[in-house]
Write a structure and sequence with these properties.
21% strand, disordered N terminus, alpha/beta, 154 residues, 6-stranded parallel sheet
């Protein structure tokens, strides 16, 4: 059984990986960052519906109006009790929600972890580095994320 806190990587079930699982009998309460088309959030919903992820989505935070996402995320996280926050991708709101959660001592899982361009002139690359480095659970979405060792992610 994986440790409750610690850095680990795994497949999310998104894009053909292994299904998401949660070993505990009590469903985890999740806050999910919704960004882009919503396909990653849908993968989480599908896993819950299929019984491969023992969780309840309590809140979905979107990146509409990104300028205030950190403030809104902190407010939401303070108002509710979460077992973990799941963030997806490499947009500014991904990093902002991860920062808000870490500041409030809520564990963070980063979906699409380990993806790298190694081009620090790209804002998305900075978001990836920061988000992976502050997340306690790294969930990869494609083989290239697994090919990189954790020590080389940042």
């Amino acid at each position: 059984e994986p440790p409750a806190i610690g850095r680990h990587s795994g497949a999310t079930g998104h894009r053909g990986g292994e299904p998401m699982t949660a070993p505990s009998a009590k469903p985890a309460r999740l806050a999910v960052l919704g960004s882009g088309s919503g396909s990653n959030c849908q993968s989480i919903i599908d896993a819950i519906d299929a019984g491969t992820l023992n969780a309840t989505i309590v809140c979905v935070i979107t990146d509409v109006g990104e300028a205030r996402i950190l403030e809104r995320a902190e407010q939401t996280l303070e108002e509710h009790s979460f077992d973990r926050v799941i963030v997806v991708g490499d947009v500014n709101s991904t990093m902002a929600v991860a920062l808000a959660a870490v500041k409030l001592h809520v564990p963070v899982a980063h979906v699409e972890a380990g993806l790298r361009s190694f081009d620090r002139s790209m804002p998305e690359e900075i978001n990836r580095i920061v988000t992976d480095s502050i997340s306690d659970m790294l969930l990869v979405s494609e083989p290239s994320g697994m090919e990189k060792s954790v020590s080389k992610l940042w």
